[in-house]
């Protein structure tokens, strides 16, 4: 089973960037993935967005590596502050070739908001 999750919510003075990581199952290696995400607090969405990426491929005999994905930076809402804990929710849609179609991943977890490093 392919695994994905948001690992960081980074803020600067005026931007927020969401970072995730993923590891594909063998049948999903090299497949395009589209992630939709929402960062919320107390039921209110603070920022949302999406990102396209591609799962890595393995180099036998090693399995496909865990790699990260980074969503494009978005304007930081005033309510989103360093040190607060937010709920990071994402939906991943994997385009599959065999059989042709889609596979979905859905997850949520609480994360601390951290400062973006210069």
Q: What's the gyration radius in Å?
A: 15 Å
**Count of alpha/pi helices:** 0
| Share of β-strand residues | over 45%
Residue-averaged pLDDT, rounded?
A: 93
Order of helices and strands: EEEEEEEE
Shape from CA axes? elongated
Task: List segments where confidence is low: pLDDT < 50 over at least 5 consecutive residues.
Answer: none
Total count of strands: 8
Largest sheet: 8 strands, mixed
Ends apart, CA distance between termini: 35 Å
Q: Could you say which structural class the secondary elements and strand pairing correspond to?
A: mainly beta
Percentage of residues assigned to helices: under 10%
Keywords:
single chain; 118 residues; mainly beta; eight-stranded mixed β-sheet
Task: Write up this protein.
The chain is mostly beta strands and 118 residues long. Helices cover 0% and strands 63% of the residues. It is built from no helices and eight strands. The protein has strands at residues 3-11, 15-23, 32-41, 44-54, 67-70, 74-75, 85-97, 100-115. Strand 3 (32-41) and strand 4 (44-54) form a beta hairpin. The mean pLDDT is 93.
Summed up:
This protein has 118 residues and is mainly β. It has strands at 3-11, 15-23, 32-41, 44-54, 67-70, 74-75, 85-97, 100-115. Strands 1, 2, 3, 4, 5, 6, 7 and 8 form an 8-stranded mixed β-sheet that branches.
């Amino acid at each position: 089973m392919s695994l994905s999750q948001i690992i960081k919510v980074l803020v600067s003075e005026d931007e927020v960037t969401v970072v995730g990581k993923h590891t594909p199952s063998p049948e999903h290696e090299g497949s395009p993935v589209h992630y939709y995400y929402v960062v919320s607090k107390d039921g209110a969405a603070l920022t949302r967005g999406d990102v396209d990426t591609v799962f890595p491929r393995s180099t036998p005999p090693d399995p496909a590596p865990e790699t990260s994905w980074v969503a494009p930076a978005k304007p930081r809402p005033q309510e989103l502050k360093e040190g607060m804990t937010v709920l990071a929710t994402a939906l991943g849609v994997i385009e599959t070739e065999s059989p042709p179609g889609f596979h979905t991943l859905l997850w949520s977890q609480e994360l601390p908001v951290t400062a973006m490093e210069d």
